[in-house]
Amino acid sequence: MSKNKSSESVKVVVRCRPLSRKEESNGPAGGIVQMDLRLGQVILKNPRAPPSEPQKTFTFDAVYDSSSKQRDLYDESVRPLIDSVLAGFNGTIFAYGQTGTGKTYTMQGLWLDPEKQGVIPNAFDHIFTHISRSQSDKQYLVRASYLEIYLEEIRDLLDPNHGNTRGLELRESPETGVYVQDLTSCVCKSIKEIEEVMNVGNQARAVGATDMNEHSSRSHALFLITVECSQPGPDGRKHIRVGRLNLVDLAGSERQAKTGVQGDRLKEAAKINLSLSALGNVISALADGRSSHVPYRDSKLTRLLQDSLGGNAKTVMVATLGPAPQHYDETLTTLRYANRAKNIQNQPRVNEDPKDALLREFQKEIARLRAQLNHRRFRSKQKKEQVDGEAWERDGDEEEEVEEEEVEKEAEEFVKLEEQRLEKENEAIREDQFLLAEEKQKLLGENEKMMGDLRKRQEATEQLTARYKAMESKLLVGGKNIIDHTNEQQKMLEMKRQEIAEQTRREREMQQQMLIQDEEAVELRETFTSLQQEVEAKTKKLKKLYAKLQCTKAEIKDVNDEHVRSRQELEQTQNELTRELKFKYLIIENFIPPEEKNKIMNRLMFDPEEDEWKFKPLVPDESKSSQMKKRPVSAVGYKRPISQYARVALSMGTHSRYRAENVMLLELDMTPPNTSALTDGEQNQSPTLNNFPTNDKGICKSRSWCQSQKSITSSSSNNSLVGCQTAAPAVAM
Ligand code: ADP
Ligand code: MG
Questions:
Q1: What's the whole-model pTM score?
Q2: Which atom of ligand 1 approaches the CA of 70 most closely?
Q3: pLDDT tens digits, 473-498
């Protein structure tokens, strides 16, 4: 699986946008960012500091100033990465920076102007041009997905009803690493199609947000492209390489004000930058190199980018800056962040023949469809030849070798001929005078059926062909669409441009190395001819070192200040949260009964995967089925638990209707209506009532009720049951 075990660091480039018109009119002329393109350095001026304070200098893999072109950034810093993706590596480009500094401009740019197209459209162009120019023995499959992370929820931007559904879940598999479950993925056959996918996603993003600016500065957008390439290897078998490209436009890195908000707003504020601060922590942990734990699991973004940061991927980070003096602090933070990311080491390797390659599935399906189709056509052809009276001599193995188109043509011919033959037969039958009407009808019916069968078969073949063609068209074959093959000049031009970009990069690297060596060469092995000379040289060295010391001191102070500030902010957030918690406690203590609270507490459990508290199911999942099946102890041998009375009644063999049921038998009240007794006076009361005196004269209790009350005092005694049985039959029957 691995081709290249060597590790390489994350490439970090910095881009500064021009001053906007508003900024130009507001502040003092000029920005606070200066760039040395040759050395790849950014020099930052503090607008509030005294002029004597040394300026801050940062060195990166490349820097792009306000006059830089989209194309330059792409050719120099992104093109090599896309080439790697096409060769089967994983690649990630992410844009990081404050809102309004040009992240979206860098990633997407202005679509309609070819000069101002950003990284993503240029990458589309690059990928599909590469495919069209590659050799014809290569097959490609390109897929695209688009998602955003907003308030720690993953939304599929290509799913038309993503707004209604809950966020998607992250899953992890040993083969592909972390992936998003049920994410829509579109197979794209051309630049136009993939642009369409991008547009659909962008629209979904805009629709989902009430205030686009606000939304886009708080959500992370990830455009994912998977390029699978199949190519015959030296062993003659087809090998598949899968390159995955993540194009990430991060949320604005500016500090979100968390203070002074409560309730839902507080929760939201805490979540907005969770992914970004987690990203910062991951970068710090990786850059540090000493910490054993990298907190990838703290946020969705870091889990998704796990491979890109310290894993199996090549990564380019584009940090964007604004030149305006009022954003000095944010700009400095961005530069520090980017500077740290330089130290991350990745271990990219080619993904060869992964188990989940979709291309292989496609190839298998296409082969299956083709075999099916050939078989059908072949059978038709065979039949035709039989009809033609030709002897069939070839054996079955030749099936594959027969020219596909020839077979197809012959099959079609056969169908036509067969139809004509049946038509003719029908004619003949109709005209035949010797046949009975009945027979004619029968023969015609048979022919009709044959015709129907023929048509059905043909339809099925057509459907199969359509499916086969649709499937096949999804695979892009190298060497086709050779429009630009003819345009050799353009190709040469591109190559030259690439060469120049490569050269500039190498030159810059050399310059940077020289600079480092220069600084490190403290031990000057020089021989001084005079004391004076030595003093001069050493003074110069001392000055240099002193300046460096001052810089470092200032840096330490800055970092300390920043730590203090962020600690204060954290404390403030903590205070807010504590207050919120106290409020919730108050409600619980005063308004929820303790037993209810305990019940809830016992059922709660924390799901670290989703970072949420959840209720345990009342019946544990795994034992649910077994518990449902288990019979109650009291039901041994019976269909359901029954009382002893019913059991005895069962053994006595009473009416089947009451079998196994605990039914009390009541005798009908046979006393005559006592209205007359009431009119006659109290002396004429019925003798039955006299036998059973009651406390209340108005209430008339039935005899059977009284009897059964006497006899069923203990339902467990057999005697009483028998008594009851004997008293009951009149009613029960
Ligand atoms: P973000 O995505 O970082 O919030 P945008 O990409 O939306 O910022 O950029 C804000 C504005 O600045 C846009 O109007 C964009 O056209 C402009 N802009 C950004 N970078 C550049 C650049 N390098 N050259 C010219 N204009 C730029
Ligand atoms: Mg943006």
A1: 0.71
A2: 23
A3: 887 777 655 455 556 777 788 888 88
